[in-house]
C-alpha cells in the first residue's frame, strides 16, 4: 500500500529543492530558472517516528525499518497553463494518481531568485495554481462525461454513479470551487477517489521561507496560514533551502545546526507528519529481535486488513492478533513485561487497529 504526495506550485518556488531535501538526494535538478524541471522526479521517503526507535531500543532489534511515503515533483505551472502557457498542464497527468497535494508557495524574498510574476505574493500564487488545477479538472470531467453517454443509455449502474459524481464535481468547478468542496456520501467514496480529480485531493500548503524565518515564519506565511484556515486546509512552514543542506549532514551535525536555528526538528519531519495526518494514516508496529518495523494503515483499518499490508496470506489466513498498546509496551519494558502485566490482548477479526499498536499476527496458510 503506497501513499503518494504530488508537489505542485509555480516555477522556481523551490519544489525540486524540497524534493531533494525529502529524498536526501540531488536527484532532481534544482536551479534558479523557471521550468528547470520537465520530467517528473519520483522518490521514497522514510516517515520519521520516534516511537519506532524507542521500541527497537527496548526489544534490542537489530534493524529499524520505518514506513515510507512517495513524493512526486513535477514541472511548474503558470497562469494559462490549461491553455498551453509555460509548459502547459500535461505534467499534471503525473500526479493524478497521488493521494494528496503538497502545494509549495514562495514565501521568501530574494531578488536573485526569479519569481515568474515578478513579486512575492503567496496567496495570489495559490489562487493562480488552484485555478489551473480546477481548469484541468473541468476539462477532464467534461471529457469523461462525454465518454459515458453511450453507457448511460445502456443503463450501466457504475456509469450512472460516475456520471452523478462527475456532474457534482462539474457544478462545483463551474462555480470556481475545488472538487474537494463536494460532499461525498460514504458509499460513493471509492468511486469518487477513482475519478482522481486534482482539486478533489486534500492539500497541504508548504510555505517556503528564508533561513532567517524558518523558526517562526513571516508575514507571507502568516497570510497563507489565514487562507489555509479559511479553506479548512493545513499548512507547514519550511525553508527548503536549509532543509536541503541539513539533509546532507550527519545526524549529530544536523542536530547542532537545527539548534543554532532555533528548530527542534527538521521541518521535513513536520511536513511528512502533516502529510500523514492529511491522509488519515496511522502506524502500527511489529517488533522482534531481528527488526522493529512500522507499517502504514488508514484510520479504521481492521486487524485482518492491517495484516494484509504485510502479506496477502496474513489477511486470508488471519486467526488473531496479539496486541500491545505502544504506551504499555514502553511502561512494561517490552513484550514479556506486558504479558506478565496482562497488557497483551488477543484480538480477533473485528478489532480496529489503533495508532501505535504493537502487533503479532497468528495465521493459517
Ligand atoms: N527557501 C529558499 N530561500 C532562498 N532560495 C531558495 C529557497 N528555496 C529554493 N530556493 C532557490 O530557488 C531556486 C528554484 O528552486 P527549485 O529549482 O527547487 O524550484 P522549482 O519550483 O523546482 O522550479 P521549476 O518549476 O522551474 O522546476 C533555486 O535557486 C533554489 O536554490
Ligand atoms: Mg523543479
From TrEMBL:
Keyword Metal-binding among record annotations: yes
Cofactor(s) listed in the protein's UniProt record: Mg(2+)
GO molecular function: ATP binding; ATP hydrolysis activity; GTP binding; metal ion binding; ribosomal large subunit binding
Nuclease is among the record's keywords: no
GO cellular component annotations of the record: cytoplasm
InterPro entries hit by this protein: ATPase_YchF/OLA1, Beta-grasp_dom_sf, G_OBG, GTP-bd, P-loop_NTPase, TGS, TGS-like, TGS-like_dom_sf
Domain OBG-type G: from-to ranges: 3-258
Pfam families cross-referenced by the UniProt entry: MMR_HSR1 (PF01926), YchF-GTPase_C (PF06071)
Keyword set, alphabetical order: ATP-binding, Magnesium, Metal-binding, Nucleotide-binding
Domain spans labelled TGS: 280-363
UniProt superkingdom: Bacteria
CDD domains xrefs: TGS_YchF_OLA1, YchF
Coiled coil regions, renumbered to chain: none
Residues the entry annotates as binding ATP: 12-17
The family this protein is said to belong to: Belongs to the TRAFAC class OBG-HflX-like GTPase superfamily. OBG GTPase family. YchF/OLA1 subfamily.
Protein's job: ATPase that binds to both the 70S ribosome and the 50S ribosomal subunit in a nucleotide-independent manner.
Name of the molecule in the record: Ribosome-binding ATPase YchF
Taxonomic source organism: Pseudooceanicola spongiae
Species lineage: Bacteria, Pseudomonadati, Pseudomonadota, Alphaproteobacteria, Rhodobacterales
Amino acid at each position: 500500500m503506497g501513499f503518494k504526495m504530488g508537489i505542485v506550485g509555480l516555477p522556481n518556488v523551490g519544489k525540486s529543492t524540497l524534493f531533494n531535501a525529502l529524498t536526501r538526494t540531488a536527484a532532481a535538478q534544482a536551479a534558479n530558472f523557471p521550468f528547470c524541471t520537465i520530467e517528473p522526479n519520483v522518490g521514497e521517503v522514510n516517515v520519521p517516528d520516534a516511537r519506532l526507535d524507542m521500541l527497537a531500543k527496548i526489544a534490542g532489534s537489530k534493524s529499524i525499518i520505518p514506513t515510507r511515503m512517495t513524493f512526486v515533483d513535477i514541472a511548474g505551472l503558470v497562469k494559462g497553463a490549461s491553455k498551453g502557457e509555460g509548459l502547459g498542464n500535461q505534467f499534471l497527468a503525473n500526479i493524478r494518481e497521488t493521494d494528496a497535494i503538497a502545494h509549495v508557495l514562495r514565501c521568501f524574498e530574494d531578488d536573485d531568485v526569479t519569481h515568474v510574476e515578478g513579486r512575492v505574493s503567496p496567496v495570489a500564487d495559490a489562487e493562480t495554481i488552484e485555478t489551473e488545477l480546477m481548469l484541468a479538472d473541468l476539462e477532464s470531467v467534461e471529457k469523461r462525461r462525454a465518454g459515458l453517454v453511450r453507457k448511460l443509455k445502456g443503463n450501466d449502474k457504475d456509469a450512472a454513479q460516475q456520471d452523478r459524481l462527475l456532474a457534482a464535481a462539474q457544478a462545483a468547478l463551474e462555480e470556481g470551487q475545488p472538487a474537494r468542496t463536494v460532499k461525498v456520501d460514504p458509499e460513493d467514496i471509492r468511486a469518487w477517489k477513482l475519478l482522481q480529480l486534482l482539486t478533489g485531493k486534500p492539500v497541504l500548503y508548504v510555505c517556503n521561507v528564508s533561513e532567517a524565518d524558518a523558526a517562526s515564519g513571516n508575514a507571507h506565511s502568516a497570510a497563507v496560514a489565514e487562507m489555509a484556515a479559511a479553506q479548512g486546509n493545513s499548512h507547514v512552514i519550511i525553508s527548503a533551502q536549509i532543509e536541503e543542506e541539513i539533509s546532507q549532514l550527519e545526524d549529530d551535525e544536523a542536530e547542532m545546526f537545527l539548534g543554532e536555528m532555533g528548530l527542534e526538528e527538521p521541518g521535513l519531519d513536520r511536513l511528512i507528519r502533516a502529510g500523514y495526518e492529511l491522509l488519515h494514516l496511522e502506524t502500527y508496529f511489529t517488533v522482534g529481535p531481528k527488526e522493529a518495523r512500522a507499517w502504514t494503515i488508514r484510520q479504521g483499518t481492521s486487524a485482518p486488513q492491517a495484516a494484509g499490508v504485510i502479506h496477502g496470506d496474513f489477511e486470508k489466513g488471519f486467526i488473531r492478533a496479539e496486541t500491545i498498546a505502544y504506551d504499555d509496551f514502553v511502561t512494561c519494558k517490552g513484550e514479556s513485561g506486558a504479558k506478565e502485566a496482562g497488557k497483551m490482548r488477543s484480538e480477533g477479526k473485528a478489532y480496529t487497529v489503533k495508532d501505535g499498536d504493537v502487533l503479532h499476527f497468528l495465521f493459517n496458510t
